[in-house]
């Protein structure tokens, strides 16, 4: 009886682990509310339409914390599990690189290092994150 109880407690402790990261790198993405921003449609635009936009930056800051910080670190300061996103190239060049990576994620040899976000988070939402990242950029 005592052992069964112990096992039950152990199982509930496991279940209490936040579900956003599993062994497979699965995440439960948090919907990004982009109210107030110009909608962009289905097709991906090449460069960030919200660069420097105060509303986008504010949305992006919290969207980053909810969807990316667990791997890339709070404030985009990497704790070492994933690249430090403050060093992404600025401007158009960085925009292109950023979208390639977030749309496709990072999968090698069947291992998911980063989940893909295309079709999971909106284009608008992902650009707000890019907008915020540019405000914390370092060389
Ligand atoms: C489950 C952990 C995880 C989550 C969540 C995650 N990433 Fe990543 N990300 C990684 C890892 C690990 C890499 C490095 C992949 C590799 O080795 O190719 C990476 C790489 C990247 C890169 C390329 C960086 C570079 O310097 O090459 C970008 C851009 C990026 N992530 C953006 C994001 C954004 C934006 C989010 C949130 C919407 C996010 N990631 C969520 C783990 C994660």
Number of domains: 1
Query: What coarse outline follows from CA principal-axis ratios?
Result: globular
Q: Runs with pLDDT <50, length 5+? A: 12-24
Mean pLDDT over the residues: 87
Structure in words:
The protein has 139 residues and is mainly alpha-helical. It has five helices and two strands. Strands 1-2 form a two-stranded antiparallel sheet. The radius of gyration is 18 Å and the shape is globular. About 9% of the residues have low confidence. It binds heme C.
How would you summarize this macromolecular structure in one to three sentences?
The chain is mostly helical and 139 residues long. It has helices spanning 2-15, 54-67, 69-72, 91-104, 123-135, and strands spanning 106-108, 111-114.
Structural features:
single chain; 139 residues; mainly alpha; Cytochrome Bc1 Complex, Chain D, domain 2; two-stranded antiparallel sheet; 5 helices; binds heme C
Secondary structure: elements and pairs:
Blueprint (H helix, E strand, L loop, with lengths): L1 H14 L38 H14 L1 H4 L18 H14 L1 E3 L2 E4 L8 H13 L4
Antiparallel strand pairs: 1-2
Helix pairs in contact: 2-5, 4-5
The chain binds heme C.
The site of heme C has 20 residues, from α3, α4 and β2.
């Amino acid at each position: 009886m005592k052992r069964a109880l112990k096992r039950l407690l152990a199982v509930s402790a496991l279940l209490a682990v936040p579900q956003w990261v599993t062994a497979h790198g699965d995440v439960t993405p948090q919907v990004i509310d982009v109210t107030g921003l110009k909608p962009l449609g289905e097709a991906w635009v090449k460069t960030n339409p919200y660069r420097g936009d105060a509303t986008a930056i504010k949305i992006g800051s919290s969207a980053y914390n909810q969807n990316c910080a667990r791997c890339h670190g709070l404030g985009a300061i990497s704790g070492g599990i994933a690249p430090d996103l403050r060093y992404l190239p600025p401007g158009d060049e960085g925009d292109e690189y950023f979208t390639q990576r977030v749309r496709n994620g990072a999968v090698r040899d069947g291992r998911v290092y980063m989940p893909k976000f295309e079709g999971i988070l909106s284009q608008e939402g992902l650009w707000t994150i890019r907008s915020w990242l540019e405000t914390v950029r370092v060389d």
